[in-house]
Amino acid sequence: MALALAALLSLAGCSRAPVLARGPFDLVTTPVRATFAQPIVAAGPTWELTFEFDRPGDSHAADCLHVALVDAAGRRHTLAAPRLDRRGESKVFQVGALDPPVAGGDASFTAIELSSDSPVRVEAVRGLSR
Length: 130
Hints:
By secondary structure, the protein is mostly beta strands.
């Protein structure tokens, strides 16, 4: 499973994905919303997100991150049961499907909501859908 995830992430090029939100964002249990510069159309049901951290150790709390993408109609779609791949101290990749699901090309997203069960600071979020 870990090897399959690593292969998926290396093929996906998560670290080269476009920046969705630039912080810093000091995350706690209250969601923080960041509006995208332009709407992003979902290419498919799977989302690949890269969280870039600045403070040492914050990437260790990545399993506490909660993500919701907000569509053009204002509906929230959470990243359900994401798989994690921590790369050193500064990057964590999350891969998962949205709940409620959306079909590729059928949804346009305008913002992302982030929160965390443990306090962390996220410098930037990159992402794309497949």
